[in-house]
Amino acid sequence: MSDPELLELYKQHRAGQDKYAYFLMAIVASAIAFTVNKTAGLKVTCTDIPLGLSVLFWGLSFYFGCKYINWCQTTTFSNFNLLQLKKGVHPKQPVHSQEIDAAIRGVTSALESNSFNAGKCCGLQFKFAIGGALMFLIWHSINVYLFTIAI
């Protein structure tokens, strides 16, 4: 595969990851808005604890989605710095080969750390989105049950 093909594949992969993160963020923001709209003016009872947890989980999902996007941007910038160092065009390019090697090792370490953090946040974004949905379903099931036995 040629370099332009690799670059295009990388761009498509990044675009897909970004769309996925924004998609989950839109879902949880909509779920929070739906919940707030449906519960406006209602009296809160202890059976609403799962509903509160669902909103909390969705809020955490949104937060980790924002953190994921931030870590991805930081990772891309680290990768940009690494490529500049390797090509010898970094604005603060070291002169000696030992300094260049040390700078490359430092940036590579930062790149790996940033990538790890992005992956962790992506996983948490998904898990909290699912957790929120499950808590909402539990809350809904409780209310259906309570309505059924009240009849």
Explain what the structure shows.
The protein contains three helices and no strands. It has 151 residues and is mainly alpha-helical. The mean pLDDT is 93. It has helices at 3-39, 49-87, 97-150. α1 runs antiparallel to α2 (49-87), α1 runs parallel beside α3 (97-150) and α2 runs antiparallel to α3 (97-150). 86% of the residues lie in helices and 0% in strands. The longest helix has 54 residues, at 97-150. It has one domain (3-150). The relative contact order is 0.14. The chain starts with a helix and ends with a helix.
Question: How many distinct beta strands?
Answer: 0
- Return the structural class: mainly alpha
By DSSP (H or I, 4+ residues per run), the number of helices equals 3
Low-pLDDT stretches are none
Q: Which sequence of SSEs, written as H and E, runs from N to C?
A: HHH
Portion of residues within helices = over 70%
**pLDDT averaged over residues:** 93
Shape: elongated
Euclidean distance between termini CA atoms: 67 Å
Main beta-sheet annotation: none
Count of domain modules: 1
Strand content: under 5%
